[in-house]
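Give me the 3D structure for Glycosyltransferase family 39 protein.
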Amino acid sequence: MTALLAAPAPRTTVAQSPPRWVRPGVAVLLAATAVLYLWNLSASGFGNGYYAAAVQAGTQDWKAWLFGSLDSGNVLTVDKPPASLWVTTAVARVFGFSSWTVLAPQALMGVAAVGLLYLTVRRVSGPAAGLLAGAAFALTPVSALMFRFNNPDALLTLLLVAGAYCVVRAGEKASPRWLALAGVAIGFGFLTKMLQAFLVLPAFALAYLLAAPTTLGRRVLHLFGAAAAVVVSAGWFVALVELWPSGSRPYIGGSEGDSLLELALGYNGLGRIVGGEGNMGGGGGGDGGANTGFGGATGLTRLFGDSFGTEISWLLPAALLGLVAGLWFTRRAPGTDRVRASLVLWGGWLLVTGVVLSYMSGTVHPYYAVALAPAIAALVAISGHALWLGRHNVAARAVLAGMVAGTGIWTCILLGRTPDFVPVLRWVVLGLGVVAATALLTGAHEFRRLVPALATVLVLTLGLGTLAYTGATAAQAHSGSIPMSGPVSSGMGMGGPGEQSTDGELAELLAGTTTRWAAATTGAQAAASLELASGRAVIGIGGWSGGDPAPTLEQFQSDVANGEIGYYVEGGGMMGGPGGGSSEIGDWVAAHFDATTVGGRTVYDLTTGTTR
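Predicted structure for Glycosyltransferase family 39 protein (612 residues):
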């Protein structure tokens, strides 16, 4: 039993070709993933208009591309670092700005992430487990949601999987080069979504420290080198922003002191975990309360609750059981055992990230759980494959039966949360789980003719429910700032504070301007809507939360005096209350310029040169 999960993985050599089914299987996996993530993609329009507007700005101005500005006039940036915008803007610059070029890069990132996960798991457990891991990852509802959307989470997840692949390669021959490449991936993950990328570092370091085939001193030295790679690959842009004269670059949106480092440690760092100004979970409820768009109540059950449950938890019970069993069965394996090292890597990833998401009391959204999907899929594949190989052992069969039965029961419960969605499916999956678990426990595997049928039932139990839910997710259009998976689009996905539709008459008015900024309005999301409708730069006064001091009243007055802003449009909104001079600007405009109505919105012409 000790060596049950410690058996060496199947490896191919020049003289030993892979089985014939491997290449067609990988081709089908990647092609099916591409179809799932790319099909009818433009139905979601520009997805998250906030980030789409930044892509549009980046296609119009190089500095906006570099810093991730919301507008091509470079008043302020979005409240995340710009790595994901760099990629999407590059595509939009080459092929033109459109819904497709905004959303397709994330879909292709998803295909790449699935392929990388297959390669990573295959190196430890063989091609069958690799295919199972890739399919489980691709068919997780939150994966389909995020890889068909333009939030930074898509690139972050790809980079995390790339980092895991490099760690596995590094652990095979104690390679400092591969470990440094893992550090580079995590460093660029920081430039994608800041400190969330660092949650996998404890697992990566522990897996290498335990299993790399070299002396302890060299392992530690290699880890220091990888840490330096993280610092350099993330720090170059932080240094660039900090050293660049603030007067000639956009204000760093979301920060209190125009600092990217402060943004990482504050609003996008500890603020997300402990809450605070601009980081109120559940719209100000601290622990999220019953607001599913903001994660629900904190605690270890959050990932199974109404908010996160159908996004990520379909295979979570099986992954946790497989992790515990795998670590127990390999407890006396050699120190360099690769299966145990992989369990430590993926298990540590799952536990650290899962606990953080479970107890975050600041801003948290269910789609953050996409970062858990690769770890869950890998754990189920690696442990499940090893247990299947050891199915002649009673203990192995019992654990595998528990994983399958637990998945069937939990899938039945999750599908019951949307009772109108294929009602019979929950009972089919439950029945398959019972049949598979019973067959395992009673020794049906001893009959060779029954093995293919048993394996099929196992796979169907693990994947049928999530396949249906993921297909329903892909069939829905998603937009706004808080998309959620499922057979019905969530109302939370319709938009965040301040996002409004733009009337055609108003869009035409702004499109005809020749000033540096077509208009200004309160709030970044309202500005993004105007930008996308008109194709022109719009100042989002106060940024995402309304609290950014950009522009100040004095700066705004100077720009108006210089004829650089065409109009002021009322009707924006903000989360954080009056901040950054946003109310002062609106009051000043109302006191000095005449109002008119265009497309149902109150508009002030700032170029007339006449004030009241």
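The two ends are 86 Å apart (CA to CA). Let me know if you want a second pass.
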